[in-house]
Amino acid sequence: MSDAALPPPLIPGLPGLGRQPVLVTGGTGTIGSQVVLELLQSQIPARVLTRLAKPSTTEGLVYVEGDLITGAGLQDAVSQVQAVIHCASDASRGREVDIDGTRRLTEAMARWAPDARLVHVSIVGCWDNPLPYYRIKAESETVVTASDRPHVIARATQVHELVAKLVGAHLGPLGVGMRGLRFAPCDSRWLATQLVDLALDEKLPVEPVEFAGPEVLSARELAVLTAHVRGRTAPRLLRLPRVGGVLRGLSEGSNLPGPTARRGGRSYVQWLAEQG
Ligand SMILES: NC(=O)c1ccc[n+]([C@@H]2O[C@H](COP(=O)([O-])OP(=O)(O)OC[C@H]3O[C@@H](n4cnc5c(N)ncnc54)[C@H](OP(=O)(O)O)[C@@H]3O)[C@@H](O)[C@H]2O)c1
């Protein structure tokens, strides 16, 4: 992580002002790295759990090597933290990382950081679609709610980075689309500010909180916008039939936020234009 994006500390030489660190699992990933930046910009010491720790050159940032699958490093990672923002995940090893790993994390918190609160990052609509990764996310939420840790479940819609990959993927002149497929793309930088606010909130919301971007766009609109901003021809969409629970769920909007979702951040096009 570079220092370039960080503002100078409010009081030079006193970063963090003695505050306890916040642990970010998955702090090297898409959402987690934004959370780390937000913590540092708020002068809150950030600790990152990663399978491959490197020396940190950034004041207030420490990497702790560990693995949610084995439990290695968890004691060092959670000790003395005021909160954990849990962004680590692995779709290909979901049971080991997202379910059993989340359980290991809550047990480590109970033992070595009993007062720390847990912000568990999950996905909007994970209970409403049989997609295997969504089933895993739903079960990981159950692990958190069944633990006796002070916690909040923070469900987000697909972040701009993921949406750009999904709608930008095409086979020659063809893109893959589905009738009715829409997204409410979410700005990971804005989401990070919300996750940090939740982690520091004295009173944690009891119900899961949903986060989403300001607008809902169809996959077709997103593909055209992405191609336009990147100076390419928009792919002709290959329409997939709505067969099977996964596709049917998505085409019916199971990935879209509910009426109480917190909405904000840069729109998809604003974000795309800033990517250069
Ligand atoms: N991306 C989205 O659109 C989106 C939308 C809504 C919710 N979410 C949820 O938000 C969370 C973060 O998503 P993301 O897209 O930011 O993920 P990501 O970019 O794929 O990052 C995953 C992180 O998990 C860590 N990790 C993987 N296996 C681990 C293990 N065994 N032990 C410890 N850490 C491990 C990795 O750290 P190292 O490689 O450094 O170890 C990496 O930083 C996930 O729970 C996801 O379900 C994502």
CATH architecture: 3-Layer(aba) Sandwich
Estimate the global geometry from the Cα principal axes: globular
Overall strand count: 13
- Mean pLDDT across the residues is 89
CA-CA gap between termini: 20 Å
Percent helix: 25-40%
Strand order, main sheet: write it out: 3-2-1-4-5-6-10-13
Low-confidence stretches: none
SS content category: alpha/beta
CATH class reads Alpha Beta
* Estimated share of beta-strand residues: 15-25%
| Main β-sheet description | 8 strands, parallel
Helix/strand order:
EHEEHEHEHEHEEEHEEHEHEH
Number of domains: 1
Instruction: Look up the CATH topology.
Output: Rossmann fold
- Helix count equals 9
Question: What ligand molecules are bound, each kind once?
Answer: NADP nicotinamide-adenine-dinucleotide phosphate
- The CATH homology group name: NAD(P)-binding Rossmann-like Domain
Kindly provide the radius of gyration, computed on alpha-carbon positions and rounded to a whole number of angstroms: 19 Å
Question: Which structural traits does this protein have?
Answer:
276 residues, alpha/beta, Rossmann fold, three-stranded mixed beta sheet, 9 helices, 13 strands, globular, binds NADP nicotinamide-adenine-dinucleotide phosphate
